[in-house]
Write a structure and sequence with these properties.
The chain has 7 helices and 10 strands. With 267 residues, it is of the alpha+beta class. The termini are far apart.
């Protein structure tokens, strides 16, 4: 049997999730911590559910491995060897054939966009055009030989103050697909582009255009859905992670409130 764990990380100081020699990556730090905790051996392969770019965060990345000692495959033990911006909080025992990258039914991303003044109604209308199965060539940075067809199951847009929370669920995603969709929604929401432009982008056989990707820092992997796999949360690990986050980001909370004070004073 393999063990699968849910991990979360703040991507700001990582050069992406995938291992790269001489760079700080999620996969590299995770494997190093698992070895130090005695959970796996040095030559054990760790499989991630997918790739996130430099600066992108994750609330629910999944890693799978064959533990050297099942008793040491607990999130609270693993976290004792993890850096402050990477932690585990849930685990499941999975079959040997479990593949965290190929087995998901769908993935869900959230982008938090600070963009005062956008037209929420227009953004929602245009997001509906993206639902279903389409060729997303114009919404991605295509890798050679990669099939550009994807099925978007759901897009939700919620406004809170000056922020838009954009949730996108698909069977799988192309490189930069979420960030380019966000850029498109922002441009139609601002009036820079008209809704007809979105329809043109969905027909790459007739219209090819490079769409800029939204900044990485607003994006995080929110959820991965595996049919038939039951993860069990480690409540102690979650409480410790919450405390760690509160301590690490106290200055950011303060600056956020100062920003609001200044913004309101200048209106």
């Amino acid at each position: 049997m393999k063990t699968a764990i849910k991990i979360a990380y703040i991507g700001t100081d990582f050069s992406g999730s995938q291992y790269q020699p001489d760079r700080r990556t999620v996969e590299g730090e995770l494997k190093k911590g698992l070895v130090e905790a005695g959970t796996i051996n040095e030559n054990t392969r760790v499989y991630l559910s997918g790739r996130t770019d430099a600066g992108v965060h994750a609330l629910c990345q999944v890693a799978a491995f064959e533990p050297a000692d099942i008793k040491l495959a607990e999130p609270r033990i693993i976290n004792s060897k993890m850096p402050k911006d990477l932690w585990s909080y849930s685990k499941a025992e999975v079959p040997d054939g479990f593949d965290p990258r190929r087995d998901p039914e769908s993935r869900e991303y959230r982008y938090i966009l600070h963009a005062p003044g956008l037209d929420e109604v227009t953004m929602a209308m245009c997001s509906e055009m993206l639902l279903g199965t389409h060729d997303f060539t114009n919404f991605a940075t295509l890798e050679p030989g990669k099939d550009p067809v994807r099925m978007v199951k759901n897009i939700g847009i919620r406004k809170h103050g000056d922020f838009f929370f954009i949730d996108i669920e698909a069977n799988s995603f192309l490189w930069n697909m979420v960030r380019k969709i966000v850029s498109v929604l922002r441009m139609v929401g601002s009036g820079e582009q008209q809704p007809e432009w979105v329809e043109m982008l969905l027909d790459p056989g007739e219209h090819r255009e490079g769409v800029p990707a939204a900044p990485a820092g607003g994006l995080y992997l929110m959820k991965i859905n595996y049919p038939g796999i039951d993860f069990i949360d480690d409540e102690y690990a979650k409480k410790r992670a919450y405390r760690r986050l509160s301590e690490s980001f106290e200055s950011y909370y303060t600056m956020s409130e100062i920003y609001r004070e200044f913004r309101d004073a200048m209106r």
